[in-house]
Amino acid sequence: MPIDAAKALAAEPRSGEIRWERRDVQLYHLGIGAGRPATDPDELRYTLETRLHVLPSFATVAGAGSPGVISGLSMPGIDVDLARVLHGGQSLTLHRPIPAAGTATATGRIAAVYDKGKAAVLVMRTEVADADGPLWTNDAQIFVRGEGGWGGDRGPATRQEPPAGEPDRTVERPVREDQALLYRLSGDYNPLHADPEFAKLAGFDRPILHGLCTYGITLKAVVDTELGGDVSRVRSYTTRFAGVVYPGETLRIRMWRGDGRVRVAVSAVERDDAPVLADTIVEHS
User: Fold this and answer.
1) Catalytic annotation present for 210
2) Residue 205 annotated to the active site
3) Splitting the chain (285 residues) into consecutive groups of 10 residues, what average pLDDT does each group show?
4) pTM for the predicted model, two decimal places
5) Among 139, 188, 224, 279, which one carries the catalytic annotation?
6) Catalytic residue among 29, 87, 193, 284, which?
């Protein structure tokens, strides 16, 4: 079996130093569509070094390392065909606000391996801490088609009942034609997001937007409209990737307010509201 669950779970965690500067944060923010309008005081918090705050989803690219979905595939006990792999979901827990520049230690391991019958799900956990203590914990859910069926733990149910009633707020966010080209400069150079020929081999008409770019666009929309622009209020952020986005499309982001949380659903306007992000929750103070 290409996935040896016992070996993957028993493997020693991998640790390494990561560093980021204000420029990295600014580039990430531009990659998720910040800076429009360029002189808007609210947008300058994302783009101007003298006012800079850090959107928590920057944690998914901090240090310009490979995203968890890639690093997880190189762990002991994991030997799978990349063509069978999907980034199924992402969850982020913030232990304190992310500084605009820093040095930290990132420790990654396979935290869980689930047998879904026709597929396997790997949970790649990355814990990041600096000299002052824990900063964040990232979990990437890696869905591997055709690798289940060994009788292992099916894992927890992750799908939720849709939010009841009409959303409390709906916003639309246009995705630039060059959004993926800009976002990939933060570290994810998968040609699926830039090379038309590679995208066709993968079964797409044209390159698709990074799921984690949509993830960042969505969190920014929630922070800006529901949290008063205060990034420090975010406590955790979880989503399931339900569909693709093509550069040039428009995201429709629906939000339902709850007690200390905002539930979110994201769809592609031009494709009859095709689902993009589902089971999405931002927990906040």
Assistant:
1) no
2) no
3) 86 93 98 97 97 97 72 82 84 98 95 92 95 96 88 84 92 98 94 93 93 97 98 98 98 98 98 98 98
4) 0.95
5) 188
6) 193
